[in-house]
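Re: your question about Threonine aldolase

S., sorry for the slow reply, the queue was backed up all week. Below is exactly what I fed in.
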Amino acid sequence: MIPRMSDKTEDEQRPSMRERRRTAIRTAPRVLSRGGWRGTLRERLTGLTEAAPEVYDLDEPADIYGDGVVSALERRVAELLGTEAAVFFPTGTMAQQVALRCWAARTGNPAVALHALSHPEVHERHAFSQVSGLRPVTVSQEPRPVTAADVHGLDEPVGALMLELPLRDAGFLLPSWEELTGAVDAAREREAVVHFDGARLWEATEHFGRPLEEIAALADSVYVSFYKSLGGLGGAALAGPASLVEEARTWRHRYGGTVFQQFPTALSALAGLDRELPRLPEYVRHARVVAAALREGFAEAGLPWARVHPEVPHTHDFQVWLPFDPEVLAEAAVRQAEETGTLLFGDGWDSRGPGLSFTETGVRAAGLEWTARDVRDAAVDFAGRLG
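Result:
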């Protein structure tokens, strides 16, 4: 029996925190980090319709099983990363499984060394072992990027070393250039191939001070995402040697990833490469301004303990840690938006023990409009709502 509205309790009639947050993100006049993916269907379709004619000839036939606009996207990615070829995948989870499965067949070793906080270990329900016959080997559990010492310390042979750049669950951290080349060299010494989980690799050029092709050249293969940094509708690419890419196409078909038509996703990815990719260094630089202003605002508000991690962001995303439970922080964030029209923190908060929580935030196009004073004032107002 479906209850009538009058049968529901007052709590059941009240909008949930998730609904309130979504409304705040959509309607607040000022939002620090408002990703385009949060838009309505109408907004997303309108944006794609406006951008598509600028990136591809819409009088060309629609793609069929990966030709046309999808092939054009693959060529563009290979050119940007300086690889022989690239292949489109509907998801990064599939792209990386296929890449490492192909490498395992070539090396004869299904063991993949990766960080304990890497995406396949934390967010993919053990897909490597359950689906692809790969055997994850933890190279480090420390909340920092993998080092040469970590690789040298492995107590068994591995066929591949997978490095997530940046390491999202440690705070979107990137190694120094010397640390990265050291880890890669250590893998080579162990006769292991190197694969970059570069879902957000597009953002790394400012930190490394090097172009994408020089960064990608360190690895034997690279995966990149089209929605995490570029605002696309989805999709990913695997880039590397032509022979690996051709083999990956075969496995993509076997995994069910050769989709009949993907032109909306491909067009949105091309638009992201044209519109967002050139702006990412600016986002990273302004994220550093925002991070410093948050620290100053929290200090001015007299919070007993607050942390921005890393203090100087490596990408345009970073973490904010505060000494309160998630429910308290979520309520303060949404109430600030509802009462002032300013949403400082639009993502949820995760607990890391009693009275300690963190959220992820960052800077995109909307965030460039925030001055350091804007951020400090918003941080002081937010802190005042914590009670």
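The longest strand covers residues 135-140. Residues 199 and 205 are 14 Å apart (CA to CA).

Happy to talk it through on Thursday.
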